[in-house]
Amino acid sequence: MIEVRDLHKAFGMVKAVDGVSFTARDGEITGLLGPNGAGKTTTLRMLYTLMKPDRGQVIVDGIDAAADALAVRRELGVLPDARGLYKRLTARENINYFARLHGLPEALLADRRDALIHALEMEDIADRRTEGFSQGQRVKTAIARALIHDPRNVILDEPTNGLDVMATRALRKFMGRLKAEGRCVLFSSHIMQEVAALCDRIVVIAHGRVVADESPAALREQTGEANLEDAFVKIIGSDEGLAA
Amino acid sequence: MNAVSLKIERSRAFVTVFLKEVKENLRDRRTIVSAFLTGPLLGPIMLVMLLNITLNREFNKAEQPLPVPVIGANYAPNLIAALKAGGIVPTAAIGNPEVAVRKQDADVVMRISPDFATSWRRGEPVQVEVIYDSSQRDANTAVERVSQLVESYARQQGAMRLVARGLAPSTAWPVTAARRDQATAQARAALMFSILPYFFVLTVFMGGMYLAIDLTAGERERQSLEPLFANPVSRWKILAGKLAAICVFSIASLLISLVAFGVVGRFIPTEKLGMELDLGLHFSGHVLLLMLPLIVLLAALQSMVAAFAKSYREAQTYVSLLMFVPVLPSILLSTMPIKAQGWMYAVPLLGQHLGIMQLLRGDGIDMQQLGLCLAGSLAAAVLGVLATVHLYQSERLAISS
Predict the structure, then answer these.
(1) Rounded distance, CA B380 to CA B384, Å?
(2) What is the complex's ipTM, to 2 decimals?
(3) Is B226 touching A (CB cutoff 8 A)?
(4) pLDDT tens-digit profile of B353-365?
(5) Which end of chain A is more exposed for a tag (fewer CB within 10 A), N or C?
(6) Residue A84 near chain B (CB below 8 Å)
(7) Domain spanning A2-82+151-236 has what CATH number?
(8) Is there a single domain that holds both residue B76 and residue B33?
């Protein structure tokens, strides 16, 4: 479970995140929806302790990120906005590297890695160097790398960005699987249909603030709009930066 | 997780980062070429080429007949005969000797005045003009040879005149300076090889350069630093693993270079110059020891400089500029020959330069100098590493976009 309480982060005069609070529960998919530049990535970066919040608290499975950042990182599987792979290493070696950084014993590492390679259907690319991978292949490798330590909580920053239809469908299916395994899945997106189709709970962020935190049905009810797209536009106050 | 497995994990993170960096960079052709070919072999090859050119020139000048245009050769046939005996070939007179030497048409021109014979017979001092341009280094040996021949001819004739008047020739020279050159054969060589310390520093520099760039600016450019930092490993451990990888590549470069110099040293005809050059095991071992703290310092400096850059290319420019810093002590010492003071050994780069020069001279390096050199450079290396660790903690470092 991931709990975020009153997060603030400013870069100079720009308030990127200005009081964000929400909870992502186990066995649920929580969507962080907002236009480009709303503060989603900055919020997530504070979650996986890459950045320190100016104010506020991040708690993952009861551990305070400010008190023990390393322990929090151990509980998290992260697909950051930057997917950078090591292009002179194969997909398998990329996964091994992160597994060893997590301190996995070699036998366990091999089991988990092969299971992930199978689940993500990437057997054909596992032993190729990642230089020249397609966007979909890169995301698959990055996800396998992020989940190798079997984390309870999974954070995905715009996971379907740049993927084609087939890769997107496969990824959505995979996220459903993570949820079924009882994990807490938190992902960000600026695509409404995706969030609506996948999420148990939607946190809408605009201008660094949470403007709604509901289930998709409740959201429709609250705004009085039958169509989700109209509901979002009404909440955010404009349709700028949202994609269908 | 229990305490034992935690401990294993801690020691493993450093090794994991280190091994991954080594493996990844061994797959990069540019790194390999720079660290194992151009970096370490550039020095020895350049040295051999330079030496061959210098040596050949010196020997040619000293042994070969030297053509010198002489104006008024017919006024002093005996002098000309003496010059000929000394290997100088008088050639036809030229019209404007001053312009000729400046335009490098001739290295040196002699002018004998028409009243040479008259003055000679009267026993008056006569002048022989030697016209040259001292800014043409190439001409110096020729000028030297001509002047010496003229002087020794004069001395010889003077002595004969004294003998003819019944005086001992020594009356004319009450005092003579007897030169006692204390330079050992090795010390003479050292003068020539004063560029060697810089080659070693350059080798270390080039060995680690591409790694240093790749480990910070490269990671950032390919956006892999953010996922890396999401792992439960302290940043300083990641940095330590990366620095260790840079150091290992630098050390490998230095070793290759030392071996190459050792091999090349056998083929340099130093004995022809009355020099002695020992680039053997004793020398290599001491150089390696002297360079160790410097390797760490340079690794930290390179990573630091590269971390300031936004892209790989920018980092390459910065690091290349940094490469000029190690030249400073070499230039400083060659332009103003200052006497080595004790404290100088504690200055990184300068200490290594002095130490290596002493080894080349065959003087050996005493424990105090060695200690100062190692301690000074080690202190600087620790500071450099700490500064880099501090820089690595910055939030901005990981953000690529």
Answers:
(1) 6
(2) 0.90
(3) yes
(4) 889 888 887 777 8
(5) C
(6) yes
(7) 3.40.50.300
(8) no
